Structure formats: structure tokens, C-alpha cells
Amino acid sequence: QVQLVESGGGLVQAGGSLRLSCAASGRTFSTHVMGWFRQAPGKEREFVATISWGSGGITYYEDSVKGRFTISRENAKSTVYLQMNGLKPEDTAVYYCATGPLGRIGVSSKDYDYWGQGTQVTVSS
């Protein structure tokens, strides 16, 4: 089974930055799509960012985080990152790392078959 271990969450003030990490094992990391999702209290889980393994790593972002968040992957370490800058209170949520079988980007939770445990990100006003 695939195992995803997340780290980097925490409490920051509005305008601050955090870098989330997700280390994968049990699967050929470089040939599978990676993504980040988040879920705030009382809301559905939503897509945040994704990166493919092919074509040099194609990325795609949810509109509200474009220009503020950056997803990247380091295949030699089987790790995907989410750099979050200019954080806003509305970014507060549990953030989940996920991986799926496709080489292309995936923007739906149904594109992914393994998920991390989640890491809490809290942004204060």
C-alpha cells in the first residue's frame, strides 16, 4: 500500500507563509500524479493544486490560490511540496496530500486513490 506522510502545517498570521511537505513510499512516485486538497469546517473537500509526472511537471491551481501557492515535486526524494505565501484566514483548513494512477494533472478527488492523514493550517487575522 502507498503511504503518504505530511508535515509543515501550523499557525500563522495573515500574510505569512508555510511550506507543506508530503513524502511518498510504496509506489513508483515519478509516474503518478500528485495533488493537494483542503477541507475547512462545514465545507466540502476542495481541490488546491496538482502536478503531473510527465512533460516536465505540469501544474494547475484552484483560482483562489493562484499567484500565492506553488506546488513542486522532488522525484529523487519522492516528495511533493506546497509553498503557501500571502496566507489569508480563508485558507484555514486541513490540507491533504494525495496521489493517483494517472500521469496527467488531476483536479477531482476521484482522480486520486491514496491520501495522507492531513495537516492543519490555521491563519489568524
Q: Could you say which overall geometry the principal axes of the C-alpha atoms support?
A: globular
Ranges with pLDDT <50 over ≥5 residues?
none
Main β-sheet: number of strands, strand sense, barrel status? 7 strands, mixed
Radius of gyration equals 13 Å
Secondary structure tally, helices: 0
Going by helix content, strand content and strand pairing, the class is: mainly beta
User: Roughly what percent helix?
Assistant: under 10%
Distance between the termini: 40 Å
Q: How many β-strand runs?
A: 11
Give the mean pLDDT.
Answer: 92
Order of helices and strands: EEEEEEEEEEE
Beta-strand portion reads over 45%
